[in-house]
Amino acid sequence: MEFLQQARFHDVEPYVESFALFLKDATTSPYVKSMVFELLQEKKVDKSFLVKKVGMEEQVNPSDTSLLGDGAFIKELIEKLVCRWEHSNPSLLEQLQAIVQQHLFLMYPFQFPITDTELWSEAYSKWLSQMYGEFWRDNPDINQQELIEAIKFIEKIEQAQQNYLL
């Protein structure tokens, strides 16, 4: 971690091949992979890397990837959570925002498999509410099978997060 912080001030070209090996190793920390990928973006490395983490795998070029949190999807998801919980349960909202941000960082450069922010707002809200033992009434406008899959995805990301606590 210290090395990655220091690398921001130096040429990373001598380390690109080592970073490539690290990014494609499915057993290494997804947190550190996100940090490595951000460093490669910051240094404008224009090369495709095979990235494997939390059950996802893809060839990704740091120079062609939007910065973490820059996408419309995350802004819209956070906005939906704020509208839903800001007045009725601000503590839950704070936790939801923190969890979503942690999950985004853990998955980065990958994104959520479905881009329906209403679905993800419902899934995160239901998942966290049920963790507190609260009764949850499903939104009938949300596809229930997609909701089940989204919650399974959240649980998978949460499990990966627990496995790699820094």
Q: What are the key terms here?
A:
elongated; two-stranded antiparallel ribbon; 2 strands; mainly alpha
Q: Would you mind describing this structure in some detail?
A:
The protein has 166 residues and is mainly α. The protein folds into two domains: 2-64, no CATH class; 72-163. The chain contains seven helices and two strands, in the order H-H-H-E-E-H-H-H-H. The chain has helices at residues 2-7, 16-24, 30-42, 72-85, 90-107, 117-131, 144-163; strands at 49-53, 56-60. Strands 1-2 form a two-stranded antiparallel ribbon. Strand 1 (49-53) and strand 2 form a beta hairpin. The protein is elongated, with a radius of gyration of 17 Å. The model has no long low-confidence stretch (mean pLDDT 91).
Give a short synopsis of this structure.
The protein is mainly alpha-helical. It has helices spanning 2-7, 16-24, 30-42, 72-85, 90-107, 117-131, 144-163; strands spanning 49-53, 56-60.
How is the topology of this model organized?
Layout lengths: L1 H6 L8 H9 L5 H13 L6 E5 L2 E5 L11 H14 L4 H18 L9 H15 L12 H20 L3
Antiparallel strand pairs: 1-2
Helix pairs in contact: 2-3, 4-5, 4-6, 5-7, 6-7
What is the number of beta strands? Answer: 2
User: In sequence order, what are the helices and strands, one letter per element?
Assistant: HHHEEHHHH
Contiguous low-pLDDT stretches (5 residues minimum) are: none
General form: elongated
Radius of gyration: 17 Å
How many H/I helices?
7
Largest sheet: 2 strands, antiparallel
Distance between the termini: 10 Å
Structural class: mainly alpha
Tell me what portion of residues adopts beta-strand conformation. Answer: 5-15%
Average pLDDT metric: 91
